[in-house]
Amino acid sequence: MGELIAILGAGKMGEALLSGVLRAGRRPSELVVTARREERGALLRERYGVEVVTNAEAARTARTLILAVKPQDMGVLLDELRPHVTPDRLVISMAAGITCAFIEDRLPDGVPVIRVMSNTPVLVDEAMSVVSAGSHAGEEHLKIAEELLSPVGKVLRIPEALQDGATALSGSGPAYFYYLVEAMVDAGILLGMPRAAALEMVIQSAVGAAVMLRDSGEHPVMLREAVTSPGGTTIAAIRELERHGVRAAVIEAIEAARNRGRELAEG
Ligand SMILES: NC(=O)C1=CN([C@@H]2O[C@H](COP(=O)(O)OP(=O)(O)OC[C@H]3O[C@@H](n4cnc5c(N)ncnc54)[C@H](OP(=O)(O)O)[C@@H]3O)[C@@H](O)[C@H]2O)C=CC1
Ligand SMILES: O=C(O)[C@@H]1CCC=N1
């Protein structure tokens, strides 16, 4: 069986992880992928030189099975895998909302399951991934998941009870920042900036702020205070953000994402 890794349902996240694992030095022969559509499989084979197999074949041959289908497709996939998976394999799920128990209930008894929530910056080796162990998974399984994910970003262990919260915070997190960038560019347009110039100003401000957040060791409040001059321009903007309840909207939006995650396992 070797140490073959299979990515089942290699769509956006599966492909992102595949490319990251290859960048980290694994050979294409150490990986196989599965796809629902033939042309998707052909594209992955051509782009990465990996073999495309059926789900059943992946389950029979790979030591680690990474499930990267949508939560809604997980039940069907697990039904396909059940006859072929044995407890000497490791199943890693990347799906939002799907609990380890949901997977354990649909596979033979004793199969170790790790639940992961990552995010699209996997593509640039800046992912935030959080991992939790199911009831048959232990330290050695968490280590395998961490070893796979750490070349493509940061990895944190969390209790599974916090996974839906992490999905809302860091899984979806990049989307909130892109949304803010869109809104700021719109503001630039309103102020008469050319679109390309507005986009460049906003993106570079976002990159600068992100690097300072990561590297300065300062709390975000301190960094914002340093920008906010007494009687100046920034406080005029902050007053409007507060008046429109942006902080409360962010808190409620992320709570809604957490709640949606809880619904997803129900189909
Ligand atoms: N996008 C994101 O930012 C994040 C997504 N996730 C999670 O990752 C998972 C994948 O999301 P994402 O990559 O966006 O979705 P995609 O739809 O891009 O990828 C899922 C892929 O699985 C394929 N598929 C579905 N059923 C099967 C099957 N039975 N056998 C083989 N392949 C199958 C789909 O085929 P087809 O192309 O025909 O639909 C598709 O290519 C989800 O569970 C999501 O919750 C987690 C973190 C972030
Ligand atoms: O929107 C979603 O459901 C997925 C999970 C986290 C990010 N994208």
TrEMBL record:
Main location per the UniProt record: cytoplasm
Enzyme Commission number: 1.5.1.2
Domain of life of the native organism: Bacteria
A Pfam family: P5CR_dimer
Catalytic activity: L-proline + NAD(+) = (S)-1-pyrroline-5-carboxylate + NADH + 2 H(+); L-proline + NADP(+) = (S)-1-pyrroline-5-carboxylate + NADPH + 2 H(+)
Subcellular location(s) per record: Cytoplasm
One annotated GO molecular function: pyrroline-5-carboxylate reductase activity
Primary enzyme class: oxidoreductase
GO cellular component terms, semicolon-separated: cytoplasm
Binding site for NADPH: N55
Known role: Catalyzes the reduction of 1-pyrroline-5-carboxylate (PCA) to L-proline.
Family as reported in the entry's similarity comment: Belongs to the pyrroline-5-carboxylate reductase family.
Protein name, per record: Pyrroline-5-carboxylate reductase
Taxonomic lineage of the native organism: Bacteria, Bacillati, Actinomycetota, Actinomycetes, Streptosporangiales
Gene expressing this chain: proC
